[in-house]
Amino acid sequence: MAKKFYVVWQGREPGIYSDWASCKQQVDKFAGARYKSFPTQAEAMAAFGKQPRAVRSSTSANKTSAKRTTTSKGSLTSEQVHALTAEIKIFTDGGCDPNPGKAGSGLALYRNNQLNELWYGLYDPMGTNNTAELNALNQALILAEKALAQATTVAIFCDSKYSIQCITQWAVTWQKNGWKKAGGEIKNLALIQQMFTRYQALKSQVVIHHVNGHVGIEGNELADRMSILAVDTKVVDFCLYQPPYDLAALLALRAG
User: Fold this and answer.
1) Are 102 and 123 a contacting pair, CB within 8 Å?
2) Distance CA 212, CA 78 (A)
3) What is the distance between the alpha carbons of residues 235 and 251, in angstroms, rounded to a whole number?
4) Are the CB atoms for 156 and 143 separated by under 8 Å?
5) CA 189 to CA 209: how far, in whole Å?
6) Where is the composition biased (Polar residues) (predicted)?
7) For helices 129-149 and 218-233, what crossing angle results, to 10°?
8) Sign of the alpha-carbon torsion through 202, 203, 204, 205
9) Distances in Å between the alpha carbon of 203 and those of 114, 141, 150, 194, 232?
């Protein structure tokens, strides 16, 4: 029997489960349970951030809205990020001060929901925020490629809808049109082409999720601080920030 992955949107503990027994524990005899099976983990991860349509009473809807943090459509909350079952979770961010101006990229990598690595660099004195965001996402794809080669599950979280759409949607059309778009040039084209090639090879195994910036998602906040650290230190290479990690001190650094 083919392996399935189960998404629980509403249950005792929302998340993604790799076997029916675990899923059943979350939904069995749970009033208003919402769940569904998917043939691949990538599809399950993509679906997890999207609530299925369901008929609810006005009372239950009010209770739900009172308990949950509101985000833009398709963006994951901190609770949803934590509940995803990927072993490796990579958060990316880019900063630019001003825009255009001094730019840098940052990344925070978690293993089993514990901070494992911080990265910063790719300083560009004449950069843009979009370029910095793309550079950070590209580094996440490079790390994901290495992790997947070790049979490790990976999820990527990015607060730049521009970067996500560039490589998951727009690049498909641009490639078909000979890497041209109606109405003007494709900015950051060389970088986007490189990322698109890498993403095409990984997309069946990894999902890039959107999260809102500066809403208290720790990984996103740390990636942000790393991007500004890159700006402040003018580090050109993409470097590993050396542990130990004092989270309070890191989060107190200048934000982007």
Assistant:
1) yes
2) 10
3) 20
4) no
5) 22
6) 56-76
7) 120
8) positive
9) 24, 10, 16, 14, 34
Burial 166-204, CB ≥16 within 10 A → b, else e: bbbebbeebeeeeeeeeeeebebeebbbebbebbeebee
DSSP state of 166: I
Tokens of 183: 């109405």
CA distance 254 to 120: 14
Residue 16 CA to residue 107 CA, distance in Å, equals 24
Beta-ladder partners of 114? 111
3-class secondary structure per residue, 85-99: CCCEEEEEEEEEECC
Residue type present at position 211: V
Query: Are 140 and 157 within 8 A, CB to CB?
Result: no
d(CA 103, CA 232): 9
Can you give the length of the chain in residues? 256
Contact 30, 11 (CB under 8 A): yes
List the beta bridge partners of residue 38: 5
* pLDDT single digits (tens) 56-96: 333 333 333 323 333 334 788 888 899 888 999 999 999 99
Could you read off the pLDDT of 111-170 as tens digits, one per residue? 999 999 999 999 999 999 999 999 999 999 999 999 999 989 999 999 999 999 999 999
Question: Which pair of tokens denotes residue 86?
Answer: 């990927």
The span from the CA of 53 to the CA of 84, in Å, is 21
Whether the CB-CB separation of 205 and 149 falls below 8 Å is answered with no
Distance of CA 32 to the CA centre of its chain: 28
According to DSSP, the β-strands at 5-10 and 34-38 are antiparallel
